[in-house]
Amino acid sequence: LTYIYFFFLMIRRPPRSTQSRSSAASDVYKRQLQRVRESISRLISNTLKIQEETVNLLSVTNNPKVEFNCPQGIKVFNNNKKDGQAFGFKTPEELSRHLASQLPADDPIIGHLEVLPGGMMAVSIKDNVIEEEITNILHHGAQIEQPPKQNIVVDFSSPNIAKEMHVGHLRSTIIGESMSRILEFQGHNVHRINHVGDWGTQFGMLIQYMREAYPDFLTNPPQLKDLETFYKAAKKRFDEDLEFKKKAQLNVVALQGGDEDCRKVWAMICDLSRNEFNKIYKRLHVTLNEFGESFYNPMIPGVIKELEEKGLVKEDQGAKCIFVEGFPNPLIVQKSDGGFNYDSTDMAAVKYRIETVQAGRVIYITDSGQEPHFRMIIEAAKMAGWHQPPKTRLDHMGFGVVQGEDGKKFKTRSGDVVKLMDLLDEAKDRALEQLKKRQEETKDSKSNMTEEEMLIASETIGMAAVKYFDLRQNRVSTYRFAYDKMLDPKGNTAVYLLYSYARISSILRKSEYSQEHLKGIATKTGFKITHPHERYLAVSLLRFPEVLDTVVDEMNLHKLCDLIYDISVKIAEGYNKYRILDDPNKDTRILLCEASRVVLLTAFSLVGISPLEKI
User: How high is the pLDDT of residue 614?
Assistant: First the structure.
């Protein structure tokens, strides 16, 4: 790739205009999946005089002539079979062929039903429907029909105060930001919650250690990395020195009781940590609202009292516990010494989110190792009557760990955990190295970037590469973190996608068609299919709203990445199949280029990629 000039759109969230959507059908993407379901349901009802509540459709992405496979004929046959027959037909294939023959010519969306061996029906959408929807994108952008609006809490990132963010926080932070953007794009009111670890016994020992070893810390605050060193030293003293341990425990009591001196130290530690966290969030374009463990601490006694009154709390070895069926160990809402813990805080948090925030859905984004804990919290919330499915939905969105290239735990050469800031710096440095190498190879003074332009470019590419490489993985799987793979300009990488977007933007500039001129063509003639591959690409664009529905329901962000890559590949394939600028069909192909750019731009924003307008 030859990087000539970069114009950056630093998109932190979808543009404001995409967050408040009209639901008028003429202004938004129609969900083709639902429209096809309705047509097939109507076909079955009119032909067989039965009602089909659920019509199953399977998207087909590798056949230019088919959009969906439908097994409904097989299902209807098996559900109504008597003495080996159903509705007078001996096989599912015969029944499906009869249904296909009854498809009315004026069906609003289905152009053709082809019956495959065994009875599966291959569904093709009418060309005029595809053309209308692409034209609609040109007029109104990548707008979607919105589901009913909900208050949704997304709990993600959640680092511990007094510790630097490390590679273990990468996935939760990136996944949570993208899920929040998609939910906001669908019109939901999203509460982006950073449930930081800012409370507990660790602060008592840290306060005591700093008083002894660093007495002027309030006027001469340490760096966060120094604070983490202090934390490790304090833990060692806590474990080995009984006098130190007693003082640390008294500090915890004083802190929880509102002692002014302890509160000052605690606030300083939190502020110091928060400032460092925000540097990472700024680089990743992540937005969060902090509601740490300390926020819920005053609520815990009342929550425990309510749980006791509901008969859910049982005492076990002096601790107050909730026993959840199917789990060997209980939730401990109050320890035997009267203290609180993660279980206490999370029970208070789930009650607050459902009853006070009035969240219809809560999504916890942590590693899969914490899934049993959150399953217990969700079940206990149901037992308490707070969580009432399907009125409310609570999900744990677990993910696999990030490994090193050797398939082992991702560590530095010295064996320490990889700090997240160091990881991002490395991604930027490697992107910068690639840019310098390419610039040297071109030996074209016109393509040379200034040092400042190159630094901006490397930051954009590096952050996009890290985020996309993570999001395109199946979230429940572990993956190997490899800089060379994520910065590869070929294959399913952010660099390839950025190149695809830049190339299509270049074609649009060379056409010299203004936005007003493009809208004029769209109004006068609209998009018209002139080549089979145009249809193939256009159908991929129309899958966008349905893929978002799937992502939100299944919590599988890689499916959106798959669509972005599929669109980019089909754009590239089109360059080899037909000409664009010097062709009689220039106008309609430029319209398809613009529709592709619009959808890619929107999809990029949802996965947190800032596009490159020119390459």
Answer: 59
Q: What integer pLDDT is reported at residue 28 of this predicted model?
A: 54
Residues 6+ apart with CB under 8 A from 447: 2, 3, 4, 5, 439
- The Cα 145–Cα 23 span in angstroms is 5
- Out of 10-24, 129-143, 601-615, least confident range: 10-24
pLDDT band of residue 450 (cuts 50, 70, 90) is: confident
Show the tokens assigned to 136. Answer: 């609609």
Beta bridge partner(s), residue 115: 121
pLDDT at 18: 38
CA-only gyration radius of the chain, Å? 29
The amino acid present at 417, given as its one-letter code, is: V
- Separation of alpha carbons 140 and 382, rounded Å: 42
166-199 b/e (C-beta count within 10 Å ≥ 16 → b): bbbbbbbbbbbbbbbbbbbbbbbebbbbbbbbbb
- Residue 507: which of 435, 592, 569, 448 has the closest Cα? 592
Q: Strand pairing partners for 419?
A: 166
For 539-569, write each residue's pLDDT tens digit: 999 999 999 999 999 999 999 999 999 999 9
Which tokens go with 567? 């669109």
How does DSSP assign 4-50, residue by residue? ----B---SSS-GGGTS----GGGSB--HHHHHHHHHHHHHHHHHS-
What secondary structure, in 3-state letters, does 200-240 show? Answer: CHHHHHHHHHHHHHCCCCCCCCCCHHHHHHHHHHHHHHHHH
DSSP per-residue codes, 549-594: HHHHHHT-THHHHHHHHHHHHHHHHHHTT--STTSTTHHHHHHHHH
The pLDDT of residue 248 is: 92
pLDDT at 277 > cutoff 70: yes
Tell the residue number behind the tokens 């959009």, with chain if given: 67
**Residue range 396-442, pLDDT digits in tens:** 999 999 999 988 888 877 778 899 999 999 999 999 998 888 888 77
Residue ranges of alpha helices (H) inside 443-585 are 451-471, 483-486, 494-511, 515-524, 532-542, 544-554, 558-575
Report yes or no: 538 and 596 within 8 Å, Cβ to Cβ: no
Listed residue (293, 282, 274) closest to 224, CA to CA: 274
How far, CA to CA in Å, does 29 sit from each of 123, 133, 407, 413, 474?
19, 7, 42, 50, 27
What phi, psi does 398 have (nearest 5°)?
Answer: -80, 160
**Tens of pLDDT, residues 284-301:** 999 999 999 999 999 999
The H-or-E segment that residue 361 falls in is strand 361-364
Given a cut of 50, is residue 6 above it in pLDDT? no
CA distance 413 to 430: 18
Helix (H), strand (E) counts: the chain:
22, 14
User: Whole-prediction pTM value?
Assistant: 0.91
Pairing of strands 151-155, 189-194: parallel
Cα separation, 20 vs 143, whole angstroms: 10
CA 68 to chain centre: 25
**What are 8's strand-pairing partners?**
612
The yes-or-no verdict on residue 2 having pLDDT over 70 is: no
CA dihedral 58, 64, 66, 67 (to 10 degrees): 50
| AA letter at 510 | K
Which amino acid is residue 332, in one-letter code? I
Rounded Cα–Cα distance for residues 615 and 599 (Å): 19
**Residue 615, both tokens:** 């390459």
